[in-house]
Amino acid sequence: MITPMREILVLYYSAGGAVRRMAELVADGIERVPGAAARLRTVPRVSPLTEVAAPPIPAEGAPYCELRDLEDCAGLALGSPARFGNMAAPLKHFLEGTTALWLKGALAGKPACVFTSSASLHGGQETTLVSMMLPLLHHGMLIVGLPYTLSELNATRTGGTPYGPSHFAGTAGDEPVTDAERALCVAQGRRLAEIALKLAR
């Protein structure tokens, strides 16, 4: 009997490219788990002019997320840049449109994790991660963090928290993802996929 692949949704918003890179690394970790596959999706920018609509397909990168992507996934990795200690408006706007899924409990019992990047080393990474967890908890999702059994979590001098992977991008947004940050992103993806597969049995 062939075991079906379980798809894990990696949903992110990235303004400067750092969160997109982290999303790719989380997806890499997911893909390292036999039986799991990553589905990368993003959300469009929020325009200050409500008449201006985003193009139906992004010019580059992952496709835009649809509610069906959330409903069909076996788990969710959610990524956003830090914005004054909170998630970015485009991602929050998308999540606020998931009421129909909440009403029928479509995400309840599924595992989820969060990741972020900030321009300053103490730019609200941890509060951003915690704020991203709140709507997921309202949906009944199970939050998966990073354990201190990961040596990189103790050794990192840039990003990395028990609440989820993080990255210090620098004020110009040109700091590359460090080895420790990279390892934590991959480890988070792997851990999320392993738990999703266990819960799906």
Describe the protein's architecture and organization:
By secondary structure, this protein is an alpha/beta fold. The protein has one domain (6-199): Rossmann fold (3-Layer(aba) Sandwich). 36% of the residues lie in helices and 17% in strands. It has helices at 18-31, 67-72, 89-95, 99-103, 125-138, 151-155, 179-199, and strands at 6-12, 36-42, 75-81, 111-118, 142-143, 166-168. Strands 1, 2, 3, 4, 5 and 6 form a 6-stranded parallel sheet that branches. Helix 1 crosses helix 7 (179-199). The radius of gyration is 16 Å and the shape is globular. The two termini are 14 Å apart.
What would you say about this model in short?
The protein is α/β, with parallel strands linked by helices. It has seven helices and six strands.
